[in-house]
Amino acid sequence: MKKQSFFSRIVFVLNYLFALLLCISYLAPYVSVELLPFLSVFSLSLPMLVLVNIIFCFYWLLAKNKRVFLSAFVLVLGYFLVDLFIKFNFSEEEPKENDLKVMTYNARGFNINEWSSDNTIGDKIIDFVLKEDPDIVCIQEFSRIRYKQLKQNYNYSFVAPDYNVSKAIQGIYSKYPILKTGELPFEHTNNIASFADILCNNDTVRVYNLHLESLKVVPDIEAISNEESSKLYGRITKSFKRQQEQALIVKNHIKNTSYKTIVCGDFNNNQYSNVYRVIRGDLLDTFNEKGTTYGRTYNFKYYPLRIDFILASDNIAVTSHKNYDVKLSDHFPVMASFKLGVNK
């Protein structure tokens, strides 16, 4: 009996520690990276901390012990402070005939750098996009070699940056006329953001294509655990600070448009980060509106990460959201559909 009591005390100490860490992680979306950079690291671990606290709840429930209220309280608190990382919808809604379908996809250069031994990946990505047939597709880590292959379905396109600029390439393809295009100035980085004003029937929509600073982390837990923690922490926090600068640029640019807005892209950070919160502002996250399960968009071994987003201004109705389990890149494609004729 004493051994069991001692074990319970040890479990409770661990429970208290993980409950505290979860509470700290709740602060991450609300605190700038510049102020407390370590909180951004906590934001990446929030889903894991939630699961650990759920396990503690089940343990105390089975033991019929009132200590269950510790993790239960922290989990309920999180319900009001941050978005759920799992959506309990039973099925995905399908886009309706007249909906505007928008896809975002980090294509990892269509395998131009031969990260995979499968030399057909580039063609498979093209086939996938053409088959799903979105009205607008935003591609990060684009390859100019693939430019003409998508033109067969899309009359309008914008590829950025210019040929003489050495940065990651982006592509925006549209079935609707593109009226204006532009880039957002990200300095001291290989990443860029671009936009296109697109005339969808009688509505003009500004579509952003974002690719924020990479964390430069190999998506493998074993590789991360073998790296010196101080170097890993330093590199990640440096990337977070650049993301913060980029997020503010995007936020200010969005503020200055009067058009309905759709933001697509690879944020290289999850929905619990301050970076995401700054860009999202009053925009709707299509996964929160219509998504199912946990919405994984990045192929990180054993750990679901949602770092690719489609956001929309609240004068656009989100009608569907779909996460694809298509392993042709280190990212998974995401598509959402919209009904434009909605007033605030």
UniProtKB/TrEMBL annotation:
GO MF, one annotated term: exonuclease activity
Keyword set includes Ribosomal protein: no
Keyword Transmembrane (UniProt): yes
Biological process according to GO: DNA repair
Cofactor(s) of this protein: Mn(2+); Mg(2+)
Keywords, ordered alphabetically: DNA damage, DNA repair, Endonuclease, Exonuclease, Hydrolase, Magnesium, Membrane, Metal-binding, Nuclease, Transmembrane, Transmembrane helix
Pfam families, sorted: Exo_endo_phos
Domain (Endonuclease/exonuclease/phosphatase) ranges: 103-331
Bilayer-crossing regions: 12-32, 38-61, 68-86
UniProt-recorded name of the protein: Uncharacterized conserved protein YafD, endonuclease/exonuclease/phosphatase (EEP) superfamily
Species assigned in the record: Cellulophaga fucicola
